[in-house]
Write a structure and sequence with these properties.
The protein is 29% helix and 23% strand. The chain starts with 7 loop residues before the first strand and ends with a helix. The chain has a 7-stranded mixed beta sheet, sandwiched between helices. It has one domain: Gcn5-related N-acetyltransferase (GNAT) (Aminopeptidase, 3-Layer(aba) Sandwich), CATH 3.40.630. Helix 5 links the parallel strand 4 and strand 5. It has 209 residues and is of the alpha+beta class. It has 8 helices and 7 strands.
């Protein structure tokens, strides 16, 4: 890793939403423009409730993000560096992330999930995702969860054919396994292409739950 790029991690609010939208629509997906229209609402939606994701418009997703931030129905943390947003993480109470229900993941209400990261392509491998992960864990603990989970791509050979078309940076949008292990997560299950990792809160670890 190159020299760490220090960032100031803050919750996404209506006050800094325009900063995030500007980042999303310019630098964030400069190397992967087909994901630009996600607006980081994918994990909150389900095809059954919200319609087929593949035919949703960029405008629909932008509006959904704006409304969720205004209504405080989602949780994102943004990273500021040198006066601008350079990355973000989506991490929330797992039961709010409806896409996991669709995938058959049974999420306990006391479990938070770190869903995805995006970092400015010019600043990757500079420790920004790790700083965001630490901020996300602290925020989830403050919300009262007992565990923080993530689902990380660890076996690209087991991916679907469409997923295999993604580049290494896109496959790492859940965050690399080594980053999670370094801050104390443990692998609790390997299934297909993914590893399920978990970090217990200090109180939960001490209780042996």
């Amino acid at each position: 890793m190159m020299n760490e790029f220090p960032v100031d991690c803050r919750p996404l609010t209506v006050e800094n939403l325009d900063d995030l939208l500007n980042f999303m629509e310019t630098d964030a997906f400069s190397d992967n423009p087909r994901w630009r229209g996600c607006y980081c609402v994918f994990h909150y939606l389900s095809d059954e409730r919200d319609g087929d994701w593949t035919i949703r418009s960029c405008s629909d997703n932008r509006t959904a993000l704006t409304r969720m931030v205004e209504d405080k129905r989602g949780h994102w943390i943004v990273a500021y560096g040198e006066g601008r947003i350079v990355g973000w993480v989506n991490a929330d109470i797992g039961t709010r992330l409806k896409r996991y229900d669709e995938w058959g993941v049974r999420v306990d209400p006391a479990t938070g999930i770190v869903a995805c990261f995006v970092v400015d392509p010019r600043l990757r491998l500079r420790g920004i995702a790790r700083q965001l992960l630490n901020a996300a864990v602290e925020a989830l603990w403050a919300s009262g969860v007992k565990n923080v989970d993530a689902y990380v791509t660890t076996d690209p050979k087991a991916l679907s054919e469409s997923e295999k078309e993604l580049g290494p940076d896109q496959l790492a949008h859940h965050g690399p396994l080594a980053m999670y292990l370094k801050v104390g997560f443990e692998v609790i299950e390997q299934k297909g292409a993914m590893s399920h990792v978990r970090l217990k809160t200090p109180a939960n670890r001490d209780s042996g739950e």
